Structure formats: structure tokens, C-alpha cells
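Hi R.,

Here's the chain you asked about this morning:
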Amino acid sequence: MTTITLYHNPRCSKSRETLKLLESEGVTPNIVKYLDSPLSAEALSMLKQQLGVASFRDMMRTKEADYKAANLGDASVEEAQLLEAMVNNPKLMERPIAIKGEKAVIGRPPENVLALIQ
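And here is the predicted structure, written out as C-alpha cells:
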């Protein structure tokens, strides 16, 4: 069985709920506290592909104050700039994100992660 990796922020209620849900299903994920161990540009690019999203913006916390302060919602902001923003400020990454093999899901709502174990 392939291990599930959970990009986790223990201070986030949705992240905690997702972890609890996985554990209730008998899954002990490999937990990565991405605020303590930020992802590289390469890892974020792979994660974008695993999520199957069109833009880095789709995996960002668009309501975050830092997102707004950096004007990242402006349509003229290029993908490279969005990627650089997440590398330099990991709290911009949506959370939690669970990965199993080549597939990843954002745990909002937490039940989204069940697709990885069914």
C-alpha cells in the first residue's frame, strides 16, 4: 500500500480534521509540517501536476492577507511569480494537501482525502 503524505499545519482546524479523518480510516500518514519545511519550487511544481490544477493560484490561500498585500490576485501576475511567492511564503499554500502516489487532493473539505484511500 502506498503511503499518504499530508502537508499539514497543526494550527489549522481543517488540517487537524483531515488528519483525524485519515486516522479514523486506519491511515497513519507521513506528516510534513510545510511551514517548518517549506517546499521547493520543484516540489510545488510537481504538487501542482499531482493536483491537476491549471494554475498555482488554484493551490493558494487567496484570502490570506499576504496574498492580498502582494496583489497576487491581479490577472497580470504570472505563474512564475505565484510559484516564487509560495516558495518564499509557504503559508500561502492551501492546506491541507494529501498525496498518494501520483495523485493529490486539497482537504477542503476534509472528506476530499477519502478519494485517496478508496
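One quick note: The first strand starts at residue 4 and ends at 7.

Cheers,
M.
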